[in-house]
Specification:
Blueprint lengths: L1 E5 L5 H5 L4 E5 L14 E4 L7 H4 L7 E4 L9 H6 L3 E3 L6 H19 L7 E5 L3 H10 L5 E5 L1 H7 L7 H7 L2 E4 L17 H6 L5 E4 L8 H10 L4 E4 L10 H6 L2 E2 L8 H18 L8 H4 L7 E4 L5 H12 L2 H15 L1 H10 L11 E4 L6 H8 L2 E4 L2
Parallel strand pairs: 1-2, 1-3, 3-4, 4-5, 6-7, 6-8, 8-9, 9-10, 10-11, 12-13, 13-14
The structure holds nicotinamide-adenine-dinucleotide and 4-phospho-D-erythronate.
Family: Belongs to the D-isomer specific 2-hydroxyacid dehydrogenase family. PdxB subfamily.
Enzyme class: oxidoreductase
InterPro entries: D-isomer_2-hydroxyacid_DH, D-isomer_DH_NAD-bd, Erythronate-4-P_DHase, Erythronate-4-P_DHase_dimer, NAD(P)-bd_dom_sf, PdxB_dimer_sf
Length: 383
């Protein structure tokens, strides 16, 4: 059996060689010819799997994307061709939440505000948005949720309309999938009218998909009024993104919110398991045997620290978004935007999720343990 795998998929040989011969290729360079003679294709989000790509796919029986998003896959076409498909829901959701929390802590520090007492609007409350709300639960943060598909399916009367979030939220986080058509389409969900309606001072974060937000309208508002705080990890037209918009945002990163070792490797394992199921083979390999140990395992807090300070300290030690902002900026200046965007993603330095860090507390009071655990760290009470 032959399996074609994107070069940015970690542990591909370790997992997929159980199935057969693994060939690697950069995801943006995959063509119809690349697929000839291959039985399985394993991609990430940058390879459009469509009629043009499948034109010469003479043996293809399985397609897997090691990502949460599936907007790059023509699912009806795979159905018509009888090709089995799998994605990796939830795989890097915790990493995205870490990214959002790190960004919020940085802006809070720069602007001298506290997350406690803020109202945060979460648009799209699936794996990412839902876990973000849960992790903020132990802080005094008011979470407002907009998720019309879930509101309908679950009869949730506590969920709000997007325009209510825009009215009320100090922080607005977009975690929607890209859906081009239908009642709940998300293309330019944040359109010009909604971007204009954001209250001055709103923190706007998009770590969903670039096309969910009208980038031209955001750039124009920032040029004209400069009165928002903005965090963009996803952009229209990646990797050739709008440099003028990039210059105006407070935190700009090249679609790496989910790029922890943990999130990426879990995505590979999920697709390995799905492929083995599809081909009727036992999945013997386990991620636990292959994943490297975290280099920072433990922080000991010897005396009591106010919860927000402790969160900030531990978050910064584990993952600090500044690392990615600064490094991406160096790549872009050295290589230009388009090449720099992809090069930083390809050479992304290792990063671990908050949940890999154990925080040992010598003193617990004032909700410190709950705040740390709620934020995602694993906590142990010392003697
Ligand atoms: N920046 C990154 O690195 C990164 C990483 C992972 C995922 N993502 C993106 O984030 C998206 C969300 O991830 P997830 O794991 O939470 O997915 P998910 O499928 O678990 O949740 C998505 C949620 O959005 C809701 N939704 C759909 N249409 C909506 C609309 N019009 N308005 C409001 N809510 C709507 C759905 O009902 C669902 O609850 C993914 O589809 C992917 O595109 C980005
Ligand atoms: O949908 C996802 O899982 C993410 O957007 C994904 O992690 C982005 O990384 P890429 O697939 O572009 O390598």
């Amino acid at each position: 059996m032959r399996i074609l795998v994107d070069e940015n998929v970690p542990l591909a040989e370790e997992f997929f060689s159980e199935l057969g011969e693994v060939t690697r290729q950069p995801g943006r360079e995959m063509t119809a010819e690349s697929l000839r003679g291959h039985d399985a294709l394993v991609v990430r989000s940058i390879t459009p799997v469509n009629a043009a790509l499948l034109e010469q796919a003479d043996r293809l029986r399985f397609v897997g994307t090691c990502t949460i998003g599936t907007d790059h896959i023509d699912l009806p076409l795979l159905g018509e061709r009888g090709i089995s498909f799998a994605s990796a829901p939830g795989s890097n959701a915790d990493s995205v939440v870490d990214y959002v929390l790190s960004s919020l802590l940085l802006l809070a520090e720069e602007d001298g505000f506290s997350l406690a007492g803020k109202t945060i609007g979460i648009v799209g409350a699936g794996n990412v948005g839902g876990r973000l709300a849960a992790r903020l639960d132990n802080l005094d943060v008011d979470c407002l949720i907009c998720d019309p598909p879930r509101a309908e399916a679950e009869g949730r009367e506590d969920f709000l309309e997007l325009d209510a979030l825009i009215d009320q939220a100090d922080i607005l986080c977009l975690h929607t999938p890209l859906v081009s058509e239908g009642e709940h389409a998300t293309f330019h969900l944040l359109d010009r009218t909604r971007i204009e309606a954001l209250k001055p001072g709103t923190v706007l974060i998009n770590a969903g998909r670039g096309d969910c937000l009208d980038g031209d309208a955001l750039r124009e508002r920032l040029e004209r009024r400069g009165d928002l705080r903005t965090v963009l990890d996803v952009w229209e037209h990646e990797p050739g993104i709008d440099e003028a918009l990039y210059e105006l945002v407070d935190i700009g990163t090249p679609h790496i919110a989910g790029y922890s070792v943990d999130g990426k490797m879990l995505g590979t394992e999920m697709i390995y398991q799905a492929a083995m199921r599809h081909f009727g083979l036992p999945a013997r390999k386990k991620l636990g045997q292959l994943k490297p140990d975290p280099w920072l395992r433990k922080i000991v807090l010897h005396s009591w620290t106010p919860p927000l300070d402790a969160l900030s300290l531990c978050a910064r030690a584990c993952y600090d978004v500044r690392r990615d902002m600064l490094a991406f900026d160096r790549y872009r200046r050295r290589l230009g935007m388009t090449a720099g965007f992809d090069a930083y993603r390809r050479e992304y330095p290792p990063r671990r999720e908050f949940q890999t860090l154990r925080v040992e507390l010598k003193k617990n009071k004032g909700g410190l343990r709950d705040a740390l655990e709620g934020f995602g760290f694993s906590v142990k009470l010392g003697k």
